[in-house]
Write a structure and sequence with these properties.
alpha/beta; 25 strands; 22% helix; 494 residues; disordered N terminus; Rossmann fold; 11 helices; Alpha-Beta Plaits
């Protein structure tokens, strides 16, 4: 999502589309809608090939009409935000720019997972640093039960999940899905397909990343072979896994967001009771473009997440792993959305001890010190995090600290990784706890209570008063404080 300004483009005479010549009245030129920079760059080099394009309409009917008239091949539809995804030639894409009701054309591009290997920690202390373990041991939610995320499903958009892993035993994964949007061999125009809940979807180029992230958010409490205990932030929550499929690209991630938008109220269908398959209340997104980029309010990602927030779902984003010094923004563009309930997470280093006075991670992406809109919202432990990760998988093999799980066959089934990819699911799990504390809370209220109760650790840039919060360009409002946030929302001692 690197934005370099809109490309004007040129159309002269008529435009070939779907085998027909689209003529322009004499003396008049069609008004051309803007292209996203990524699409403009793709059109320069596409030649006679085809590109994937997201056609944004004033209404869904406008987008559908533009795709049909220009002869492009529809891939899928984002119904609630008026976007049709299609494949087309350069000429067809240019023709769509002049169609009535079309507002924006957006291209596809690769994203990266915000994680890397670690060689330090062999035990998990992050729940001490966040005070998440303390909250679970001492507080109860509105349901009178221990605060563990019960009653909430967390959607994890990532490389997939291994439901056979001990972290997810006992029906933890209530639904598993996979994007096939970029698979040109598929004839199914529904980009998201169901996968049986017992099938491992986390085996491709980023294999292991999704399982590690999911276990940080909501993995079961498990005792490893060395006697240490590993647990997700919300071990009582359920997981809806959405694998991005063969590649992490904007289209596959957006298709997953669209699925959540259509199904968050009843992710397993209306016939399955909420006690078995709770509504999705938070989405974890541990991916983004390398090097950050400029926030684009016209993008499908932003339109989808704003609609999700309107419907009561919190969006959590990894801030990015590009470090920086504040001279320019390197944070995840979608995470910069100022909408209340969209949360950007920086990585904190608890130094393997659970300390709350550690440093912000050097790799954690900084915003531009002169532009608070680009700053992270909050910090959570993301350095040296132990989670579900089988040692033979590509991402997991970078950890170099494999540990054995509880069973005799669970050899090397846990590993240590670092990144804002690991920090974001800490917050996603804590959001599940907060919804258990107050099921009627809005996404904006959840973000506000997290930021207003955060612990202002002293490392890094000084805090400044911005829009009602003390915050900073490197670590946001500080380290999350689960006990303080949950108590502010009504959780009380047992």
């Amino acid at each position: 999502m690197v934005r370099r300004g809109l490309l004007a483009g040129v159309v002269v005479g008529g435009l070939v589309a779907g085998g027909s010549l689209l003529t322009v009245p004499a003396g008049a030129e069609p008004a051309l809608v803007p292209l996203s920079p990524s699409l403009g760059e793709q059109l320069v080099g596409v030649g006679s090939g085809q590109v994937l394009v997201m056609v944004h309409g004033a209404t869904l009917a406008d987008a559908q009409r533009a795709v049909a008239v220009t002869g492009m091949q529809r891939v899928t539809t984002f119904r609630k935000i008026g976007v049709v995804v299609a494949r087309g030639s350069k000429q067809q894409v240019q023709a769509a720019r002049a169609q009535p009701g079309v507002r924006y054309l957006e291209g596809d591009e690769p994203l990266v997972a915000h994680a890397g290997g670690s060689t330090v920690a062999t035990r998990s202390t992050s729940l001490v640093a966040t005070r998440g373990l303390e909250a679970r041991q001492s507080l109860v939610g509105a349901d009178g039960a221990a605060l563990d995320g019960t009653g909430v499903s967390i959607a994890v958009i990532d490389s997939g999940i291994d439901p056979t892993h001990p972290a997810f035993a006992g029906g933890k994964v209530v639904r598993s899905l996979k994007s096939v949007c970029v698979d040109e061999s598929t004839t199914d125009t529904n980009c998201i397909m169901d996968v049986p809940n017992g099938v491992d979807t986390d085996t491709l180029s980023l294999g292991g990343h999704g399982s590690h992230v999911s276990s940080i958010a909501a993995g079961r409490s498990v005792t490893l072979s060395d006697g240490s205990t590993v647990s997700g932030a919300a071990p009582g929550a359920k997981i809806v896994s959405l694998s991005t499929g063969a590649a992490v690209v904007i289209l596959s991630a957006d298709a997953a967001l669209e699925w959540v938008l259509e199904h968050h109220a009843a992710p397993c269908g209306p016939a399955v009771p909420a006690a078995q398959c709770p509504p999705i209340k938070v989405v974890n997104n541990s991916y983004g473009p390398q090097g950050g980029g400029t926030f684009d309010a016209n993008s499908a990602t932003v339109k989808l997440q704003r609609q999700l927030v309107r419907e009561g779902v919190v969006m959590v984003w990894a801030a990015g792993n590009d470090g920086g010094d504040g001279s320019k923004s390197l944070t995840n563009p979608s995470a910069q959305d100022p909408t209340g309930g969209v949360i950007s997470v920086a990585s904190y280093n608890d130094q393997g001890s659970g300390t709350r006075s550690g440093p912000v991670s050097s790799f954690s992406s900084r915003g531009a010190r002169t532009d608070p809109a680009t700053w992270p919202d909050i910090s959570a432990p993301g350095q040296n995090i132990v989670g579900a990760c089988r040692a033979y998988l590509p991402i997991c093999s970078t950890g170099l600290k494999p540990q054995n799980g509880p069973g005799i066959l669970d050899v090397g089934s846990y590993n240590t990784l670092s990144g804002t990819s690991m920090a974001a699911p800490q917050i996603a799990g804590i959001v599940a706890l907060l919804f258990q504390a107050d099921p009627a809370a809005t996404p904006a209220e959840i973000e506000n209570v997290l930021k207003s109760t955060a612990f202002r650790y002293s490392d890094g840039a000084p805090y400044q008063r911005v829009a009602g919060y003390w915050t900073s360009f490197d670590k946001g409002t500080g380290l999350v404080d689960t006990v303080a946030a949950a108590t502010a929302l009504g959780a009380h001692s047992r």
